């Protein structure tokens, strides 16, 4: 290929000295390259004007005035215009979030010939999957400017640069961290984000497919165990931060089975309460007349007034601190009769009788003679204790009296 100024001079020569000019081509040197020499001629036949040169600039001879111009002698090929590489870089995203990837794409072309085979050299190498391919994957940890140098055989190389902006991901905090609750309870999880670019949006996920954009989130897992909750915070630039928290759910003891014995209870008796459950658990009783106890099986000794009539409640607290639902039992306290026997200390002479009268109830039962009346007449021959059971229809009480029998003095003789 002729230099531009040589080619222009050749065109001038054609215009001044010939009727037309035919294309000049290489006959003996293929391909034409820098510094090549060879014989060149027009495609027409002789006679022609001749152009010959030994210094790279053709001159016109006066060999002929008919036809075209013929280059008749070998000459030094004028220096060919050198080819050049042109490259530009494009990316998939150009702006990414920390931890993400972007693909750099270097597109190269050659101007003025060349082989079309290119070599790439990227810098810096940090964060690149390769430094010698046209489309490396970039994973920079901070905003980075990447530069590529592209070369192709003897062509002039080219360089281009591009900056990948790396935006930080939000840092997410969940409070409280790792809460523990009891089965049937709930806890409030609050997510907050820093770094990144405010404002933030939140998306909670848990279970198989449960999710909620509400923050704070009221977590109410149904079953005992460890439950995982994950929140994704997205900032105004689209960068996301993820945080996971666990909620431990401890089993809650079942409501205890509660019994009272006896029931109803008389004021003269002992009331025994019992709550079924693990003996290692703790118990909390409450009841009428400001009654409290922490025993699993408490007792209330006599005398028990009717003020103790009512509902007794108990809860069980497990070793993990979970408290059961309330177990209850109703207790009725009936008054015990106030029994008396008169006379209080009867004394009779042997052969005589005494009348014993019991009071305080609605029914009576004497042990000695099976009498069911309130009064009985007795004629013991020796000191004898008489016992009666007095009932008011709900409660009963026993009472006893000693009848003293004195001997009758002998008749004076």
- End-to-end Cα distance, whole Å, is 187 Å
Percent of residues in β-strands: over 45%
Are there runs of 5+ residues with pLDDT below 50, and where?
1-81
Helical stretch tally: 1
User: What summary fits the major beta sheet?
Assistant: 5 strands, mixed
Strand order, sheet with most strands? 16-22-21-18-19
Broad shape? rod-shaped
Query: Would you tell me the structural class of the helices and strands?
Result: mainly beta
Q: Overall pLDDT, averaged?
A: 83
The radius of gyration is 59 Å
Helix content: under 10%
Q: Care to count the β-strands?
A: 38
What is the topology?
Blueprint: H1 4-17, E1 25-26, E2 37-38, E3 40-41, E4 49-52, E5 59-60, E6 69-71, E7 75-76, E8 84-91, E9 95-97, E10 102-111, E11 119-123, E12 137-138, E13 144-151, E14 158-167, E15 171-175, E16 180-182, E17 187-194, E18 201-206, E19 210-212, E20 217-219, E21 225-234, E22 240-250, E23 258-261, E24 265-266, E25 271-275, E26 282-287, E27 291-293, E28 299-300, E29 310-317, E30 327-331, E31 333-334, E32 340-342, E33 347-349, E34 354-359, E35 363-366, E36 375-378, E37 384-391, E38 396-406
Parallel strand pairs: 4-6, 9-14, 16-22, 24-31, 33-38
Antiparallel strand pairs: 1-3, 2-7, 4-5, 8-10, 10-12, 11-13, 13-14, 15-17, 17-20, 18-19, 18-21, 21-22, 23-25, 25-28, 26-27, 26-29, 29-30, 32-34, 34-36, 35-37, 37-38
């Amino acid at each position: 290929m002729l230099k531009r100024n040589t080619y222009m001079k050749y065109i001038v020569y054609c215009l001044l000295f010939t009727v037309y000019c035919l294309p000049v081509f290489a006959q003996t040197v293929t391909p034409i390259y820098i510094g090549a020499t060879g014989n060149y001629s027009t495609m027409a036949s002789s006679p022609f004007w001749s152009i010959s040169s030994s210094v790279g600039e053709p001159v016109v001879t006066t060999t002929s005035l008919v036809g075209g111009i013929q280059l008749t002698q070998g000459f030094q090929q004028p220096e060919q215009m050198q080819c050049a590489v042109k490259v530009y870089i494009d990316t998939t995203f150009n702006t990414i979030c920390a931890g993400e990837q972007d693909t750099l794409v270097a597109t190269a072309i050659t101007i003025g010939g060349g082989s079309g085979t290119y070599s790439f050299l990227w810098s810096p190498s940090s964060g690149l999957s390769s430094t010698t391919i046209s489309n490396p994957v970039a994973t920079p940890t901070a905003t980075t400017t990447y530069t590529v140098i592209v070369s192709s055989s003897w062509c002039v190389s080219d360089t281009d640069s591009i900056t990948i902006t790396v935006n930080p991901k939000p840092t997410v905090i969940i409070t409280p961290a790792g809460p523990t609750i009891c089965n049937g309870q709930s806890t409030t999880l609050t997510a907050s984000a820093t770094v990144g670019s405010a404002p933030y949006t939140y998306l909670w996920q848990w279970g198989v497919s449960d999710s909620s954009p509400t923050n704070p989130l009221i977590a109410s897992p149904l079953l005992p165990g460890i439950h995982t909750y994950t929140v994704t915070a997205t900032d105004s630039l689209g960068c996301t931060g993820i945080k996971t928290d666990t909620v431990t759910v401890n089993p809650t003891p079942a409501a205890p089975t509660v019994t009272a014995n006896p029931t109803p209870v008389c004021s003269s008796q002992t009331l025994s309460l019992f709550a079924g459950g693990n003996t290692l658990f703790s118990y909390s009783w409450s009841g009428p007349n400001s009654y409290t106890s922490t025993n699993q099986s408490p007792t209330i000794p006599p005398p028990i007034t009717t003020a103790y009539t009512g509902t007794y409640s108990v809860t069980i607290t497990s070793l993990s601190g979970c408290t059961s639902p309330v177990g209850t039992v109703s207790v009725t306290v009936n008054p015990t009769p106030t029994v008396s026997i008169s006379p209080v200390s009867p004394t009779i002479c042997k052969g005589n009788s005494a009348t014993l009268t019991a009071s305080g109830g609605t029914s009576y039962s004497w042990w000695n003679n099976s009498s069911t009346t309130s009064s009985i007449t007795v004629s013991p021959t020796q000191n004898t204790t008489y016992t009666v059971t007095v009932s008011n229809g709900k409660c009963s009480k026993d009472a006893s009296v000693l009848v003293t029998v004195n001997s009758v003095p002998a008749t004076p003789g």
